[in-house]
């Protein structure tokens, strides 16, 4: 369970930082494999297995929806284009000094 939370925390950080649908697809795949692995770790004879599995699936769905919403908000709110293409404040300062 701790590994699942760490992976989801990392994926939320990646989706916030990049805000791209590629990261969402990556997050879905890694989260799905983590979910399957977590379910396989639990013994099949355990009575609470199905309850735990349903809780993990519910948590995964909620976090996936949150990541999609956050990614869309960040993508449309901030300009995430490549900063190499546009001049920065430092570049304009160098241009002023060299003229």
UniProtKB/TrEMBL annotation:
It comes from Paenibacillus cellulosilyticus. It comes from the Bacteria. The chain crosses the membrane at residues 20-42, 54-78. Keywords: Membrane, Transmembrane, Transmembrane helix. This is Uncharacterized protein.
């Amino acid at each position: 369970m701790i590994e699942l939370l760490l992976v989801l925390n990392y994926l939320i950080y990646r989706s916030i930082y990049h805000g791209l649908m590629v990261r969402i697809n990556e997050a879905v795949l890694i989260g799905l494999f983590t979910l399957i692995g977590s379910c396989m770790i639990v013994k099949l004879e355990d009575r609470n297995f199905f309850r735990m599995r349903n809780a993990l699936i519910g948590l995964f769905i909620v976090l996936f929806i949150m990541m999609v919403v956050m990614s869309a908000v960040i993508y449309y709110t901030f300009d995430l284009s490549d900063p190499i293409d546009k001049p920065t404040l430092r570049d304009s300062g160098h241009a002023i000094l060299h003229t």
